[in-house]
Amino acid sequence: MHSAPTIEDRKAEVRRRLTIGAVIEQHVKLTGSGRSGRRRGKCEFHNSTSLSFSVKDADSGDGFGHCFNCGWHGDMFRFVMDLKGWPFMEALADLERLAGICDQGGDERAARGMIVRERSNHVRVKREREPVESIDMGRWIWKHARRDDRAVRRYFMGRGVPEEMIGAERLAQFRYMSECPCFSWPQGSDPRKVLHAPAVIALVREPRLMGPGPTLEWVPVGVHVTYLNPEGIDTMRRRAPWAKPDDENPWLPKRRMLGPTGRGCVLLGDYRPDAKLWIGEGNETVLSGMAIGAAEADDVGIAALSLNNLQGDLRKYRNGAWPMFDVRPDPEKPCFLIPRHSGAVVGLVDSDMSPLRGQKDRRTGRPLGVPVVERKWGPIVNRAITGAERARICGELFVKGWRAVGCHAEAVRAPAGMDFNDAIQEGL
Asked: What CATH number should be reported for the domain holding residue 12?
């Protein structure tokens, strides 16, 4: 009599039969062919309009996906779990079906999972209705949220932002919801019946030149949701209902971007073409950086919401190497810009970025490094790119991007190892 396969045995068999590229391509259109090792697509987790979702080792069962906008990261099992809101065992059973493990006649291994699969079948009946789309979830939340400057101000002050930096004009794009859904709900069902938490919601808008003029318009493209703790003074820390005891990251997301927000931002103030702009990644970073930099009352903050949006892409050297001696923006993918802006611009660059170590060797598990060129015509070498180097590159891309459109621009960095919100809480 054969012993029952362990969970690890079942996962290994799925990885042997399926590639992560084939799994993800069931839901996301990817570039390249099934034999490609690296492929890209539009992220399903925040409805991206750009190819921000990267799949490494796409032709392998051991590959992983990563979104450079919303930060999602995981293997094929995590992808199915997060996309469908399923616990691990349901995702495993679904992938076993996709791999053909459950369709092998009298295969004893498939039969051993029947208890899990019967439970999964029952859940699928309940899930005949697909969950609402990200943009529809965002619309519902924005519609039912209300303006409550006091609640929003309480949260920012809890994060150390001085009260004088968060006047009514800088909170105009924010709303508050005491019972905000933490994840999507089946179409046609009541959103109030899913798990909820208090939340600060910000309208995400994209600057576009519109009309025959043309004139600059701020077009709403989605919302940015920050879930709060019960006191409303910090972010939420709450386990996902489907999390297992041994999950590496069992927590619900503290923040969500709902809608095609990839090139959008949150405006912190009354925008004017000649206003001095303070631009950083997150709302707290921008407000904290403005306080540290002694911003004037009529200066405007802009939260670009992602590092990729803040800095744009680096123009790579031959064979995709990073030219450390000559950092230039990719003209096809510049940093966040506002057409026809004429005022000065300050980039707020956090200094707590993680090193980039590259892909892992399949045999040893050790990082292979990132291809870089240290000097012109120099050799391409593989090494880690440090957090300090990433911050420097971000600042250079930001400054060169804004100067290319005629603006006076500078970049300032938070103290080493910190973001600006850390710095203001430390009194630096």
From this structure: 3.90.580.10
